[in-house]
Amino acid sequence: MTAPTQARPAITGYHHIGITATDLDASVAWYQRVLGLQPLPMTFPHHGAEESGHAVLLLEPAQGWAIGIHRHVSNPGTPASEAATGLDHFAWAVSSREDLDAWASWLDEQGVEHAGVTDTTDPMPYSVLVFRDPDNLQLELVHLPG
Hints:
Strand content: 35-45%
Domain VOC: 13-144
Pfam families: Glyoxalase (PF00903)
Largest sheet: 4 strands, mixed
CATH class of the largest domain: Alpha Beta
Distance between the termini: 38 Å
Shape: globular
Protein name: Catechol 2,3-dioxygenase
Helix content: 10-25%
Organism: Geodermatophilus aquaeductus
GO molecular function, one term: dioxygenase activity
Number of helices: 2
Number of domains: 2
Low-confidence stretches: none
CATH superfamily of the largest domain: 2,3-Dihydroxybiphenyl 1,2-Dioxygenase, domain 1
CATH topology of the largest domain: 2,3-Dihydroxybiphenyl 1,2-Dioxygenase, domain 1
């Protein structure tokens, strides 16, 4: 392998992640209710395959990142599985261990099942709260102690 002749181009930040849902409307409503995301007022076609479905982009209003939730006509309705090729899980950072407890309470109020906050030191110290969206996609909130 030869050494690169130029520096890696810059990345300016996280923009969005796209996921596929079995029920677009139910997933959009869930992400609005649970994470406070706000949908843009238009849908996005699958460019080059417009007949295959479309997406709704939901923005996190304070930070500007987004989740695109896609509907695919050919989706057989199979739930997400981290054991299959593709996205294993998605995680967000929180500022403190106490924030994880607050999130656990929030998820309880919203009727969202979760695994409770787990504190571990293996392979490094961190705390995590694991929950799943309506299509079984694993979502995590993580705190790394300073």
